[in-house]
Amino acid sequence: MNIENTKAQMRKGVLEFCILSVLKEKEAYTSEILDTLKAAKLLVVEGTVYPLLTRLKNDGLLTYRWEESTSGPPRKYYGLTELGKTFLTELNGTWRELSDAVNIITNNKN
């Protein structure tokens, strides 16, 4: 069994939740989202994030707007829609339940 593959699958499973959480306070462009995820030690590559942002937008959870940049091409800023905020609230509850269950199981000293 390849531990790196298992770890990658675990990260991939929470990536959508993490991206929505990054955007809960303010809009951000892709590089800011990636920097935040990397600062939290969530190893992510751009090639994973761009399709996910597109899917979240197509699902109505994200919106975006273009903004001119003084240091290059225009930037696409993503933000949560009302549906995205509701979805994130649901995910937060699910995450707490899942996290509690995993902690109970993994900390059980039988």
From TrEMBL:
Domain Transcription regulator PadR N-terminal: 19-89
Alphabetized InterPro entries for the sequence: ArsR-like_HTH, Metal_resp_DNA-bind_regulator, Tscrpt_reg_PadR_N, WH-like_DNA-bd_sf, WH_DNA-bd_sf
GO biological process: regulation of DNA-templated transcription
Pfam families: PadR
Top-level taxonomic group: Bacteria
Protein name (record): PadR family transcriptional regulator
